[in-house]
Amino acid sequence: MAVIRLGDEPDNIEKKSITTSDPLTSSTWDERLTALEADLCEVRSSDPIFASTILDAYTQKPDLKQRSAYHRLDVIDRCFSKKTVEEILSALEREATQEPNDWISTTIGALKKASPASLKIALRSIREGRFQGVGQCLIREYRMVCHVMKGDISKDFLEGCRAILIDKDRSPKWKPWRLEEMKDSMVEQYFKKVEEEEGSKASTKEELVFFYDLKAVKW
């Protein structure tokens, strides 16, 4: 069962006439959301049980598209819960041998074509972001982007631009080329402070000042 959320129209849910909890009545998506909002506005208590009861009345099983990722959440959880990119890829390859699947094959192909540096940086960023606030996430992203653009550790960003936008040969030459060559110590470099931070007088991370040419942006 899934709760329809105000203002939410998931791509994975077919937009059509939606049957309410009463099988004798039906309404369009917009009408149903309007009714839900009106009912919630009538709540005069801070007790969550009241809002929960109203939401339950609008709860229904969504009509998912055949290619929706929701149909393969078990595979996604098994594979992408692994600790490293190498382990994730190995888990996907095991799944492919047990149950051939177009989605798994496409995912494996995409991962093998991607920059090893980008894969490992992205995985660490996602894992760290789960336990950080917005301010910390913005700081982390800023540091990552600065190091990526500088190209001191890897010039894969520039190589990707060359292969896709300039020469358009779609044959990037990543450095490092293999996942195992992208060491943890190299990944760590992308999350270190940048020179602009070292020169700032910020007292806390949340008040960190980022300098861009002649102006500063304060988070």
UniProtKB/TrEMBL annotation:
<comment type="function">
    <text>Hydrolyzes 3-hydroxyisobutyryl-CoA (HIBYL-CoA), a saline catabolite. Has high activity toward isobutyryl-CoA. Could be an isobutyryl-CoA dehydrogenase that functions in valine catabolism.</text>
</comment>
<dbReference type="Pfam" id="PF16113">
    <property type="entry name" value="ECH_2"/>
</dbReference>
<dbReference type="InterPro" id="IPR029045">
    <property type="entry name" value="ClpP/crotonase-like_dom_sf"/>
</dbReference>
<feature type="domain" description="Enoyl-CoA hydratase/isomerase">
    <location>
        <begin position="28"/>
        <end position="191"/>
    </location>
</feature>
<dbReference type="InterPro" id="IPR032259">
    <property type="entry name" value="HIBYL-CoA-H"/>
</dbReference>
<protein>
    <recommendedName>
        <fullName>3-hydroxyisobutyryl-CoA hydrolase</fullName>
        <ecNumber>3.1.2.4</ecNumber>
    </recommendedName>
</protein>
<keyword id="KW-0378">Hydrolase</keyword>
<dbReference type="GO" id="GO:0003860">
    <property type="term" value="F:3-hydroxyisobutyryl-CoA hydrolase activity"/>
</dbReference>
<comment type="similarity">
    <text>Belongs to the enoyl-CoA hydratase/isomerase family.</text>
</comment>
<dbReference type="InterPro" id="IPR045004">
    <property type="entry name" value="ECH_dom"/>
</dbReference>
<comment type="pathway">
    <text>Amino-acid degradation; L-valine degradation.</text>
</comment>
<dbReference type="GO" id="GO:0006574">
    <property type="term" value="P:L-valine catabolic process"/>
</dbReference>
